[in-house]
Amino acid sequence: MPYDSDTRRAIDLATYADEQETIDRLIHIAALSAEDRARISARGTDLVRAIRNQSDPGLMEVFLAEYGLSTDEGVALMCLAEALLRVPDPETIDTLIEDKIAPSDWGKHLGHSTSSLVNASTWALMLTGKVLAEENPGPVGHLRAAIRRMGEPVIRTAVGRAMKEMGRQFVLGETIDSAMSRASGMEAKGYTYSYDMLGEAARTEADAIRYHLDYASAIAAIAPACTGDGVRDNPGISVKLSALSPRYEQAQKARVMAEIVPRVTALAQSARAAGMGFNIDAEEAARLSLSLDVIEAALSEPALKGWDGFGVVVQAYGQRANLVIHHLYDLATRLDRKIMIRLVKGAYWDTEIKRAQVEGMDGFPVFTSKPATDVSYIANARTLLGMTDRIYPQFATHNAHSVAAILDVAGDKEAFEFQRLHGMGEALHTIVMDQERTRCRIYAPVGAHRDLLAYLVRRLLENGANSSFVNQIVDEDVPPESVARDPFEALADDTPTLPKGTELFAPERPNSKGFDLHHQPTLDMIEAARAPFATATWAATPLLAGAAKPHDPVQTANPADPADIPGTVALASPHDINTALAGAKPWNAPGAERGKILARAADIYEENFGEIFALLAREAGKTQMDAVAELREAVDFLRYYGANAPDAAPVGTFTCISPWNFPLAIFTGQISAALAAGNAVLAKPAEQTPLIAHLAVRLLHEAGVPRGALQLLPGGGEVGAALTSDPRVDGVAFTGSTQTALKIRSSMAAHLAPGAPLIAETGGLNAMIVDSTALPEQAVQAIVESAFQSAGQRCSALRCLYVQDDIAEGLLTMLKGAMDALRMDAPWHLHTDVGPVIDETARAGISAHIQNARAEGRLLHEIKTPNSGTFVAPTLIRVNGIGDLEREIFGPVLHVATFKADELDRVIDAINATGYGLTFGLMTRIDDRVQHVSDRVQAGNIYVNRNQIGAIVGSQPFGGQGLSGTGPKAGGPHYLARFLHQEAPMEGIAWKAPAKTDLSHALSLNQAIHPGTDGLLPGATGESNRLSTRSRAPLLCLGPGPDASRAQADAVRALGGTAVTLDGSLDAENLETLTGFAGALWWGDGASAREYAEALSRRRGPILPLITGAPDPGHVCHERHVCVDTTAAGGNAALLGGTS
Hints:
Layout: H1 6-13, H2 19-30, H3 34-52, H4 59-66, H5 72-83, H6 90-101, H7 116-132, H8 138-170, H9 176-187, E1 192-197, H10 205-222, E2 236-239, H11 253-274, E3 277-280, H12 288-299, E4 310-315, H13 321-335, E5 339-344, H14 349-358, H15 370-385, E6 391-396, H16 400-409, E7 417-421, H17 426-436, E8 440-446, H18 449-464, H19 469-472, H20 480-483, H21 487-490, H22 520-530, E9 538-540, E10 554-555, E11 567-569, H23 574-583, H24 591-607, H25 609-620, H26 624-643, E12 653-657, H27 665-676, E13 680-684, H28 690-703, E14 710-712, H29 717-723, E15 731-735, H30 738-751, E16 758-761, E17 767-770, H31 776-788, E18 800-804, H32 805-820, H33 840-855, E19 859-862, E20 875-878, E21 893-899, H34 904-913, E22 916-917, E23 919-923, H35 927-936, E24 941-944, E25 961-962, H36 999-1004, E26 1011-1016, E27 1023-1031, E28 1035-1037, H37 1042-1054, E29 1059-1061, H38 1070-1073, E30 1079-1081, H39 1086-1097, E31 1106-1107, H40 1113-1116, E32 1117-1125, H41 1133-1139
Parallel strand pairs: 1-2, 1-8, 2-3, 3-4, 4-5, 5-6, 6-7, 7-8, 9-11, 12-13, 12-15, 13-14, 15-16, 17-18, 17-23, 18-21, 20-21, 23-24, 24-32, 28-29, 28-30, 30-31
Antiparallel strand pairs: 10-11, 19-20, 22-25, 26-27, 27-32
Helix pairs in contact: 1-13, 2-15, 3-16, 3-17, 5-6, 5-18, 6-8, 7-8, 8-18, 10-11, 11-12, 13-15, 15-16, 22-25, 24-26, 24-28, 25-26, 26-27, 30-39, 31-32
């Protein structure tokens, strides 16, 4: 994309700049000598002493000193404040209060604070905590429980009032009129105000229109108070651009410019007419370039010429802050404007760190230490003070050292103003105003307390870490010299190192390359790389160790565009299948060598991203976001399995049958695991996506994988049937429908060796529960992503949403609005949110389901679809519960049910009763509920306060239980073991008599679930990824013979499983009807093994294995992965505390 100016281009190019280089440049810009720095620190120290000598240093300072985020109580208050006032029902309010207050040690804070309000709150919370805590058993505990029950309304009222009082301290008013009334007191002391109509970003167009009207009304209400000589003397207003559009993101730039620019311009003209300042608030780094485009378009409006009240907020923690200031100065010069720039430290630090890591970036858009941000603040302050011909600087800070530095550098005190947040920094700025006659403006939040306590949480996070100035200012244990310490000196301190996105899995392996789709240079790079393939054609054929003789080529299809023919495929013939089976040779190389070649293949995949992205869009209907995720997952599989390639005997020859919905990632994952273990692989891709598979195998061969170890056989069901029924095949990995997996199991039992492993990852009826403590905006975002991303064509996708009925009406209204904001179009375009389903067969089946719901009056909402291609509109359908779903609808269809607060366990029972257990989502702020639900829901992957799609290899191993799969989890520590030959340690001796054991009774006595291993996996900061194991149902130890049966039981128990031994032989047909077991072991003759395998294959329900060798961990234990977004309640305290 061409840039209008060099400064704009420089801003984009510096998004992930080398942090040390940026710091060095800022140190040069700051131009402070050692003497200057010493003088500034001394003045800052004097300010700290003066603040401590004040009788009232400020409530926020006192509060944070007592309840910092290093304490459990501080975190509990943060979580309670974030959620309580939006919860409508008493039952959930009581549960939330108990969850946050009961576990905390409030008593140790009693009497410590200098504030009577904080002390009174501590006393109330301590009493409440004692009432709610239940650690004492017996009569005392029962009495306390009774008091709790009787006292819940009282406690509820008291805590609710306490939260509202907290909101009142830090929110100026619930309406603009009440805020202006309260402001008059501070105005009399010489302060001016900037009013911020706070709220979450718009999720719907209705939200955006409402926020726009709120801003317009606020400007009209403030206008009569604008009686000063100019904007510097008058109150102002701050506007959040993300509140003016539900899709404020780079991908929707055309829509944003068309919608937001007129709205901003109209508001700015109203502000000009009133004579007030009008500030554009700062947003996340990913929106910076878009914001600058909007700002330039609005500021260019001729009607604003001659007005000096247009302002922009710049965040000093951003590495591009200085470049942004220079760009804005150049813009003001070019347009002949005078503008305001408010310099702040920054408010989204934890979010920025996490996003850069998750997206695999080789750097961060923000500084990773507090001293670096402080240095940046000083350097950028000096820059601004040198631009006062065009810029009126506004320095928003509560840090005494930063204030001292500005006073030291500045000349004319009339050329700038200080700013502080309402409720914070009053003592500091009152002192400075009295001493220096400087200006100070109060940045004041305005709005309902229930909406703004999330804002309070962000302030707590920003200022509550141990080393934060506001925390330390009234802590007498911290010397004033330390509080006002020179940040240039502090840069040299040892600080925890935050791994970059590329380093998350070091030293085991590099993370996959990230592609930032909010970053214009990256978008330009992607477009240049894939453009040559926009109209290219490919020809897929079998890739064999011998000569291929396939069927005649047939055309492939683009599901989004019937006129586009991506290429042709020549399907494998029976001759090709036989050639492949005859030529298959296990990869006889050391594990380290196999690992190197797979790592090389990963590099080659990344080098060919342009062709891969083009082919994923044109053959599989993948959007750009999905294409990036697909490539990254495939690369992660290659590196993860390659890094763990074992030196052990492989199973032999593995058939790998992969689906069309992840034609590169799952295809690569299956074959790379089999190859890492040394097997020969026969790869059968889905019929709809042979071109992608052909490209992948070609790149793997290019990397050095031998032809005999990896062969490609494109084709339909007949090819798959042949490759799962030939005795020369030793194992099968399959991802697809449960019905197909059962057919494969039967075919394998009849034709393959009886113990041949089947790794099946099948479908799911995945649910999410949203309770009344959930943040609606966050929940809706997660729901939309989980249900409609990838056109709902993920096995992990959300199929049934349960919403607590107390919030259902509002949440579903927001959800419908968010659906309306989605854009359906060809997946090639960046703006496309939802692409097509894979083919006409899929479209027709999904559409019939929707039509049936429409006929029954259960259709709640749907959006419009394009006129061509196999598109299905995102659709919302009402159901009574998940039991109404007879099958998985594999598309963008979400079923919705409601539940009452006391019906949570009933909902969980209904979810478990489906028999599926793949993914599950939970949106709640109640920690005990997270634990309770995670323990009870029978699903392999549980996601809390985030979407339930997009598992990361090595961080979030993926796979289900029951009808959703056999295990072990792909991308996890136990997966490769299933691709290795597990020799039986002994051969059993035939039983002498039939079994006398009452197996049903024995199995019933061994159903207790035993916890196994439990540990955290690596991943992004701000997210907890915990993998645990728990025992499956017992394994039957069939022997033969008592010694073998006991040895089998010992092997199972050694791995953490449960076993039931026999005392005689068991007829095979018993395995068809017996219940309560997870599989069987047999170390005897092949004929009996075949009978047992066929009997197990005739069972209905989950696939149960016959194990003819040693068991592996996946046989005996379920793997459970729980991913919790720890930034969900407003931020990640551990992150802030550890690095500031």
